[in-house]
Amino acid sequence: MDVIGRRERNRFMDNDKSKSKKDIINRLRRIEGQVKGIQGMVEQESCCTDILVQVSAIRSAINKVGGLIIENYAGECLNIDKDEKQEEIKKLIKTMVNFTK
After folding, report:
1. What is the pLDDT along the chain (101 residues), one digit of tens a residue?
2. Checking CA distances to 96, which of 5, 31, 47, 88 falls within 20 to 30 Å?
């Protein structure tokens, strides 16, 4: 790959990484708002069922954030090479298992 091709690829990857980071930050801010909402519900002694529905929504949202971070880890942090592929896949699986505990 020539120098110009590498620059274009790096610019694309940086742009993609920036979008991913913004998406994760936005999702975390929404989750933060949801948590504050639950705090208000508890203070107001709202129905437990309603509170649990909101807790479930937060769990789902945080799992999505975790999935995006794992996806980023696979694409950015592992730097999978053909020779290292099996070992890197094992690392990814271990990370995913630890995340879901």
Report:
1. 444 554 544 554 566 778 888 999 999 999 999 999 999 999 999 999 999 999 999 998 998 898 888 877 776 776 655 566 677 777 777 787 677 76
2. 31
Tokens standing for 15?
Answer: 């742009």
Q: H helices of 44-84, where?
A: 48-72
Domain ranges of the chain: 3-100
Q: Report the helix count and the strand count for the chain, using DSSP H and E.
A: 3, 0
The owner of tokens 């091709």 is: 5
Q: Is the pTM of this model over 0.70?
A: no
Longest dimension (CA), the chain: 64
